[in-house]
């Protein structure tokens, strides 16, 4: 290397050295702030816990039976109860931006690593990422099911498809538990639905390439194609809700109001519901077909009855939960409009 080359490297190294020095200073400040943040989080958490415990005690004292109150005192008690409730819900809001210990399920799967998302923006981003993950996997399973239905009939490729579904539903269960940990109101049934789907996919994975498997295979592939299509519709509904929620929170899109959001949600629901109910009828039909196959003279596998039972459970759970959600939403809308 020439002399001028070495000098240039020396100069650049010395400049980088100065930059490195400021980087180290800033890193030290960062570490100090991180420590401060942790101790602030712990302090806030202990204060919130203390407040919540005290409010509980105060409320039970005010609710104690046998208190002989005059009209004026009763007004005071009611006012106190209202204020305590308000503070309690403010405390709840505070806890949303503080790290929480993992649920037992998450602790077993992930260990003690914290999965608390501390800002609303982080929570929405995680939810968006979860919806995109479902969209991508729905597209992959859609293509896979079309190929298996129309072009490929090899048991080991079917096994790869079933295995992909096992992995997909296991991942969904974990992601949904993280979402619920961070305040999502996902109904318990949808998580149970994915547990049952794991068991169903495992049952299909280990079902031998028998007469009954061959008799059910085409119907299952058709069902998978249809379900992936419905999942795409669900993605457009959920991502539309998320976009509007984010815009409402940030107040960045002035065209979006709470009423506008409700109107959009109802239009989305009216569009998606017929497709959802058709999925449930398909699930019921799968259960019927499998129970019929379990009486086939050449049926020797327990998987036939087991898969039939799971399809039946999925039908009952999905049908009742979706109907309940729609009824609840219409009741709330009716009360609001009154
Ligand atoms: N899976 C995962 N999360 C779901 C969900 C589902 N099936 N249904 C609702 N959620 C989530 C929502 O995103 C929302 O999350 P958030 O609290 O983080 O914002 C929360 O649960 C509450 O949603 P809710 O108000 O009860 O319903 P919604 O308006 O979001 O959706 C339906 C209503 C009916 C469209 C939706 O529940 C649905 O698609 N159900 C059918 C699912 C199904 O049958 N799957 C199997 C066949 S494809």
Written overview of the protein:
With 338 residues, this protein is mainly α. The chain folds into two domains: 10-84; 123-337, no CATH class. The chain has helices at 3-63, 71-96, 104-110, 120-150, 155-181, 188-206, 211-250, 258-293, 303-337. The chain is extended and about 70 Å long. The structure holds coenzyme A (COA). Coenzyme A is lined by residues 127, 179, 184-187, 190, 227, 230-231, 234, 237-238, 241, 269, 272, 276, 279, 318, 322, 325.
Features:
338 residues; mainly alpha; 2 domains; 9 helices; binds coenzyme A
Beta content comes to under 5%
Taken in chain order, the helices and strands follow as HHHHHHHHH
Radius of gyration: 28 Å
Biggest beta sheet summary: none
Identify low-pLDDT runs.
none
What bound compounds does this protein have?
Answer: coenzyme A
Mean pLDDT, rounded to whole units? Answer: 92
Question: What is the general shape?
Answer: extended
Q: How many domains?
A: 2
- Tally of contiguous helical segments: 9
Extended strand count: 0
- First-residue to last-residue Cα separation: 85 Å
What structural class results from the helix and strand content? mainly alpha
Helix content: over 70%
